[in-house]
Amino acid sequence: MSSVYGRLPVSGHYLRKRLRFAGFARRLAVFALVLLVTAMVIYRLGAIAPQALIGLLLLVAAIASVALLISGVGLVRVWYRGLDGGRAAMGAFFLALLTLFPFALMIYLAFVNPRANAAYTEALAPEGVQATVAAPPSDSWTSFFAAPAAPEQPSIVSGRRFVAEAPRVFQAARMVVEDSGWEVQAIVAGDPSQPKAPTPAEGDLGISGMTGVPIPTPRDSVDLDAAADPFAVPESDQYRIEAVARDLLFGLPSDMVIRIAADDGETYVDMQSVSRSTGIDLGENRRLVEGFLTDLDTAMAGLESIAAGE
To answer: 169 with 264, same domain?
Structure first.
């Protein structure tokens, strides 16, 4: 007499070992990512000093590296030994990679860009630019982005030449600066190296006979108009725009100089961008200059199409 259990399929149950540190690695990766975002936000709000930000960034990199190492070892054990906990290890691995990505990007940019803190077009005087690049940074970011002992040549970008009058090019540059959100410091119309015309002495009209007296304009209204429109300058054949641009991540300032000059029926635009507080800009100034000139090309094309349609 055969047993009924003899005809049943063979089955069994076994216990799978579980990764011991997969959950810990995932918590580390989450903490590093949250700490990175929090550090950048509170620095942009001005709540911490650059030294504190550098310390936090180093701590974030260390924590994320530990999480990446633990999760990587765990994934290898899951693959070869079939241990449980692969989902937690996989989550920790990708979160750690996401946290370390900005650091890897900074290292890559440091290798592919010159070790300098400026970019300019070829028309600017090299002596002035080299003096600016060799100048030491002014704050504590020096310890993190220290300028090299022998600064490399800054990035050189080709300027722009337009078959248009200088006021029209200035109008396009004004549109691009406003759209970029840069902080305008000063705008000069005319050649700043030329001396200004002398003003008549007090009580002397400068001419003989009678002359009309203009109606005085209240000073408050003049100040308000100038503050509302910093680009309100008279038409000229030369313009100089000084502005401050900030990078998207840390908000570090770069001093911008845009020069617009008429030349034999054409108008030439050259530009300079210098980081104020870092010795190495990781190519940020070159990207600012190239982005502005590209947008200027688009703005000039738009103005020319409008003028052709009128």
So the answer is: yes
